[in-house]
Amino acid sequence: MPPYGFFVEFEARAGKEDDVEQFLREAKLLVDGEPGTLAWFAFRLGPSSFRIFDAFNSEDDRQAHFQGKVREAIIARADELFATPPVITPVDVLASKLPGA
Hints:
Layout: E1 4-11, H1 17-31, E2 37-44, E3 49-56, H2 59-66, H3 69-81, E4 87-92
Antiparallel strand pairs: 1-3, 1-4, 2-3
Helix pairs in contact: 1-3
């Protein structure tokens, strides 16, 4: 079970909802290059609310992801895409079910 994670909350600017959705779809390609990111999910909760959940085996892997290309992309496009700054919360995973686990 990967014990480390992040829960990230995004609110799209008015009229930028489709752009945020596309941004998150493209961010998955960046995450594919991170061997320490074991699970990564981007999802939509409502018209303008988006979230990411990801999981890691170690704090080092979590920090590598936190300092990685997805965060750089979020920072680079934050003013354009998001109504408020994204909220990034480190979480402790208590239970999980993953393939092969």
